[in-house]
Specification:
22% of the residues lie in helices and 16% in strands. The chain is α+β, with helices and mostly antiparallel strands. It has helices at residues 25-31, 78-86, 90-96; strands at residues 16-17, 42-45, 57-60, 66-68, 74-75, 100-101.
Length: 104
Amino acid sequence: MSYAHPTRGNTRKPFGFNRNLLPIPAEYYHEQGLKLFGGGEWKNAICPFHDDTKPSLRVRLDTGGYRCMVCGAHGGDVLAFHMKRHSLRFIEAAKALDAWEVER
């Protein structure tokens, strides 16, 4: 079975997910209302995925990765966070974050 390739056999601009278009993690998490604090590679925040009173969410500002030490929510970048927080599928979340290029 052969699959269509977005750039093979045509001169159109490729389409699909472009990781380089994801927002900068520090800005994204700030826009999402997370108050990040702490030093080092991982910052702390109140977890939005459960009823949290003490900061249990850890966020990396270089990759956007996150992990909650209480409820176990985790992901490798802001796209994964956006998918979980807003109950979106991959393509929907990529489009919401303007990281989905459309064919032109």
